[in-house]
Design brief:
114 residues, NMB0513-like, four-stranded antiparallel beta sheet, 55% helix
Length: 114
């Protein structure tokens, strides 16, 4: 894991301890991180999402009839889909895009940080 992203990764995972996380939260976390550490929140959002997915800490998906339904597509395709959709709504999805769910590995990673 990129140590520079450990703080926002932890923040998103903590949010996901009890419920699914709106993708808006990832963007907001990236905005906060950019204000404190510099950088473009859009690039940080994509890097943060990539880290969460690549490390297997979270899954991205949609809410369907059975609850959270994870996407099956590879991380790179998910990141591209995320970027296109965020650009289409000017990076303000207002709850209208997707959700993230902690994986068992993500929960374990979070417990190890405490």
């Amino acid at each position: 894991m990129k140590e520079t992203l450990a703080e926002p990764v932890e923040e998103v995972l903590r949010e996901g301890e009890d419920d699914w996380v709106m993708i808006d939260f990832v963007i907001g976390t990236a905005e906060d991180y950019a204000q404190t550490h510099g950088g473009d929140f859009r690039e940080i959002s994509m890097a943060l999402l990539k880290e969460l997915l690549d490390e297997g800490l979270m899954e991205i998906g949609e809410l369907g009839e059975s609850g959270f339904e994870a996407w099956e597509e590879p991380t790179e395709q998910a990141i591209e889909k995320f970027q296109r959709a965020c650009e289409a709504c000017n990076w303000k999805p207002m709850g209208g895009l997707w959700w993230l769910a902690n994986t068992e590995k993500g929960s374990h990673w979070l417990r190890a940080r405490q």
